[in-house]
Design brief:
The complex is a heterodimer. Helices cover 42% and strands 22% of the residues of chain A. Chain A is α+β, with helices and mostly antiparallel strands. In chain A, strand 13 and strand 14 form a beta hairpin. The longest helix of chain A is centred in the middle third of the chain and has 34 residues. The chains are: A alpha+beta, B alpha/beta.
Chain lengths: 389, 180
């Protein structure tokens, strides 16, 4: 496709996004802005390098669209990449610099897709990250939670990278192990728990879920026991004391060894009953012109419900490559109980460019989030269960 | 001499850079801004390239629902000004919005000759638009100076046209900036 067609596609998507903003549909606008940005990135790849002015204009447009979509990392990447290009004309350099400054200031996020309002982390003392995260559940919209999760994961990856580079540096160990990692892990779990809570509140307004107790269990028992320091009983006690960051100093040697920590957050009601049919994940799907494919791994039987105002021209689902039947707008299937390996579920949506559907992934037994926190890698399959292909 | 008519209708049919939804949105905003101060039709002063002419603007008076939907005055003034500015460049220069490109704070429209094919942005003009709802001649002149200075200093090597629309005093000014 020519750059011109990609840009035309972007223009249309951006205009539709603008209309969605005016109509107050923040989720749709964010998705459309992101698609528009992706189209501009495709356009940039196709433009003749001699068209300096055109490149400058499209580069600014791509960065600005990611900014409007709330994808600040990509906006930053685009702006920095093209600022480093010696052919970029001065006017475009000015505008890219303006975008980077806005990202640094982080002061002007008001409208759709702008994420949380305050910087998540500031430095305190010896550079120890201090979290500014505080918000009531009611303040957190679905989009803000997604944005929060992205920032937390990115921050934790950066800190783990730092640990990897200097594992024997005492100050790093203190900073990272004793405060940062447990703080971030807890925040991840908290944010994930809030995500669940938010969805459950929306999905089950008539049920009394006045207090949800977040039970956080970090399954590192095999590692604790293997270290020789704990037996099963004392390991359980250690887990109960998880929220005390000081206790996690002891796992530093275990982290260096490259072992994994699997953190599981379970939602229970105040009388310790498991929450059934809770929404594990709800996300909008914006269809692009080639069809949008979501893919993810699952370990338990789930129900997928899809809402739409206009029926997609095609909706299909496969599990481990085998076609599943979609009844109306619901997809329910079971998994073989003895299968331990992850199962690949793929959803394909085809329709008109910009059509939006809302997908709900419902747990059939209990609401569980699993996080795999490995050294230098964070996997959050429980929240980002599905990603676009 | 018969007055010209500002083509403030069906902009998307002549301006490739506008979708119908955006065009309708801008025109609706313009109708709200115009109706605040005037009764349709009314004449505006259109100034460009040192010359001045009069143009008639006609619009459909908005109902209460439409007015309420555009209760945010600054949004209405901004979008209404886009409609008037694009109609003014079409009338004065035979130029139309060819392409749209996003900026952090909004979008820029790039204009070119009606009927001409543009393969890229190399020969388009960027249109800088500013709207004023209420204000005197002094405010208008000041805004125009600011817009021209912004277009000239902030974005060098990018030919542009500045347009300021004042709804209350019924004036539209177009001024070129930089080499064309």
């Amino acid at each position: 496709m020519s750059w011109h067609k990609y840009h035309s596609q972007s223009e249309k998507l951006a205009s539709d996004a603008e209309m969605s903003v005016k109509q107050g549909d923040a989720d749709r606008a964010s998705g459309l802005y992101r698609l528009a940005a992706e189209a501009e990135v495709c356009a940039l790849k196709e433009i003749d390098p001699d068209k300096v002015r055109t490149i400058g204009i499209i580069a600014v447009s791509a960065a600005a669209l990611y900014y409007k979509a709330g994808d600040y990392q990509r906006a930053k990447d685009i702006a920095e990449r093209w600022l480093n290009n010696s052919n970029i004309p001065p006017f475009a350099a000015d505008q890219l610099g303006d975008i980077l400054q806005a990202l640094r200031d982080d002061r002007s996020r008001k409208d759709v897709g702008k994420g949380i309002d305050e910087p998540l982390f500031t430095s305190a003392g010896e550079g120890t990250p201090k979290s500014n995260f505080s918000a009531s559940v009611d303040d957190l919209s679905l989009y803000k939670l997604h944005s929060l999760m992205s920032q937390l994961i990115k921050k934790e990856n950066e800190l783990l990278d730092e640990l990897q580079r200097a594992p024997f540096k005492a100050s790093n160990n203190r900073k990272l192990i004793s405060v940062a990692i447990p703080l971030l892990s807890i925040l991840l779990l908290f944010a994930g728990g809030l995500y669940f809570y938010n969805q459950i509140r929306q999905a089950e307004q008539d049920k009394r879920l006045e207090s949800l107790r977040f039970q956080v269990t970090v399954q590192i028992m095999p590692h604790l026991i293997q270290s020789g320091k704990y037996d099963k009983e004392s390991a359980l006690q250690w887990l109960d004391d998880l929220l005390d960051p000081a206790t996690l100093q002891e796992i530093a040697p275990i982290l260096k060894g490259g072992n994994t920590i699997e953190a599981i957050a379970k939602l229970t009601t105040s009388d310790n009953q498991k929450v059934k049919n809770a929404a594990l994940e709800i996300f909008p799907v914006i269809v692009n012109d080639k069809g949008t494919i979501y893919s993810g791994t699952i370990n338990e039987a789930i129900t997928v419900e899809i809402e739409w105002q206009k029926q997609p021209s095609k909706l299909s689902a496969t599990l481990n490559g085998k076609e599943l039947s979609v009844n109306g707008n619901t997809l329910t299937f079971s998994l073989e109980s003895d299968k331990k390996q992850p199962n690949l579920l793929q959803l394909t949506f085809q329709g008109n460019l910009g059509d939006m559907y809302k997908v709900k992934i419902l747990g059939n037994s209990s609401a569980t989030i699993k996080y795999l926190i490995k050294q230098n890698q964070i996997e959050v399959p429980g929240i980002f269960l599905f990603t676009t292909v | 001499m018969a007055l010209s008519r500002l083509p403030l209708f069906e902009l998307s049919k002549r301006h490739p850079g506008l979708t119908q939804a955006v065009s309708d949105n801008y025109i609706e905003a313009a109708s709200v801004c115009l109706d605040r101060h005037h009764i349709p039709p009314t004449d505006f002063s259109l100034m460009n390239g040192g010359g001045s002419t009069e143009a008639i603007i006609n619009w459909i008076s908005p109902d209460d629902r439409t007015r309420n939907a555009w209760a945010n005055e600054s949004d209405a003034t901004r979008d209404g000004a886009y409609a008037c500015a694009l109609a003014a460049v079409e009338l004065a220069y035979g130029m139309v919005a060819i392409k749209r490109a996003e900026t952090r704070t909004g979008a820029d429209y790039y204009i070119g000759k009606l009927g001409q094919t543009f393969e890229d942005f190399e020969d388009c003009l960027r249109l800088e638009v500013s709207g004023i709802d209420k204000g005197s001649d002094t405010i208008f002149t000041q805004r125009l100076k600011e817009k021209v200075a912004q277009a000239a200093a902030g974005r060098s090597n990018l030919p542009a046209m500045a347009c300021v629309v004042s709804f209350q005093i019924r004036r539209i000014v177009l001024q070129s900036v930089g080499s064309l």
